[in-house]
Amino acid sequence: MTDRIRHRLRLGVAAALVITVIGTTACGTVLYPERRGQAAGRIDPAVAVLDGIGLLFFVVPGVIAFAVDFATGTIYLPGTASNTTLDMDDADVVRLDPDTVDVKAIERRLAQATGRDIDLADPALQARRPDDAEWRSLAAVVSAPEYAALTGRRMQAAR
Fold it and tell me: In this predicted model, what pLDDT tens digit does every residue of 55-66 receive, in sequence order?
């Protein structure tokens, strides 16, 4: 092979490697790793534009960047998922007699009040203490023994 052909071959391989690296890193995943795991929400325009630029210049890496950002949830703005936009301050308070309550009684009473089947072990369940303004997961509101009594499960250790 001539030097000219070898040079072009090396440039081609280097360009292919650069395109692959750019495409597989995905902008949102690199810029906002703390957003991983979000299920939905409003799309972050900055991440979408950066992924779109990758799509304009290199079709396959751009598609990969969008796919990775959507799959990991890093393309979504934090706190914009539809389940976090509920006005929880308008929620009804369900009061129970603490002396006669068990897990099934709580779930039945909540199901009566909401018209939905309630599972206290559901991680999407939001609760708060009467003197607290912030809604949190049940595990964040009650102690480990209370959580175990309410759900029949041990509380996961924080990572």
Answer: 887 777 788 888
Tokens of 112: 């009566």
- Sign of the torsion angle spanned by Cα atoms 122, 146, 112, 129: negative
Kindly provide the b/e burial profile for residues 127-137, where b requires at least 16 CB atoms within 10 angstroms of the residue's own CB.
bbeeeeeeeee
**b/e sequence 64-103, b meaning 16+ C-beta within 10 Å:** bbbebbbebbbbbbeeeeeeeeeeeeeeeeeeeeeeeeee
* Residues paired with residue 127 on neighbouring β-strands, in sequence order: 136
Tokens of 23: 């495409």
Q: What is the DSSP letter of 99?
A: T
pTM of the predicted structure, to 2 decimals: 0.41
- Delimit the domains of the chain by residue range: 1-72, 88-151
- 22-54 tens-digit pLDDT: 555 567 877 888 888 887 788 889 888 888 887
- Sequence-ordered list of residues with C-beta below 8 angstroms from that of 75, at least 6 positions apart, any chain: 28, 43, 44, 47, 48, 51, 66, 69
Assess contact for 139 and 158: CB atoms under 8 A. no
